[in-house]
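Polyphenol oxidase family protein: structure tokens wanted.
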Amino acid sequence: MADTTNSGCRSALLDSLGWVDHAFQAAGEPPPPEAAYGHQRHSPTVVLDEENVPPKSCESDGLIGVTTRPVAVYTADCLPVLIADARQHHVAAVHAGLKGALAGVLFSAVARLKALGASSDSLFVAIGPAISPCCYELGENVLSDIKQNPRVRQPVAWTIEQPHNPLAVRPQAQAQQQGIWFDLPQLGRQMLLQMGIPAEQIELLNICTYCMAETGASYRRNTHFNSGYRSRYSWIQRVGA
Ligand SMILES: [Zn+2]
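Answer:
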């Protein structure tokens, strides 16, 4: 299990590339001062880094980095997705919660990278700490909306019984309704696979923001306990040539 208590966590897959630096920072830590990030709206909008310098100059939920400037997203339970294109040495940071994923933000980010010269097999992706099926309850009506979404082409991962998380460091979410337990990181992974990215080039960090990550990392836990939450900044940048 990754230690996210103080300094955030990293992807071994992205580290193996050798030409990117990145971090899924701990909740509440400030982003790198030169990082570009958008005013996030759970939209499919993806822009180039320069359009969000200074940060939040425009609305976007994904940024493409074509320079050495870090591109970032901030999340609480949503998926922070960092992408590196080994062909052009471009990078991307994407904020993909359930709403944004269903609106197509991962598809727009990959399409934009491909328009700039990437191919499916040149992309390496890491999905950082996010709410996981051990703690992510949804109503049946939401599940049926997900299944009917045209971007969801394969069966999605969910269970009726709440999955036990043996790695939890605090109590898992308690059921609030007669709902189901949904696997959001797997939905993100499925969408990436659907776009032709090889499975071995997608890493899930498998850290649940509700029951495993550092204190104050989960928006949903805050809604249950009024315990407070702070954004997690995740960023990626090209280093060297
Ligand atoms: Zn959990």
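Residues 48 and 64 are 5 Å apart (CA to CA). The helical segments are 12-15, 98-103, 105-115, 140-148, 184-194, 219-225.

Cheers.
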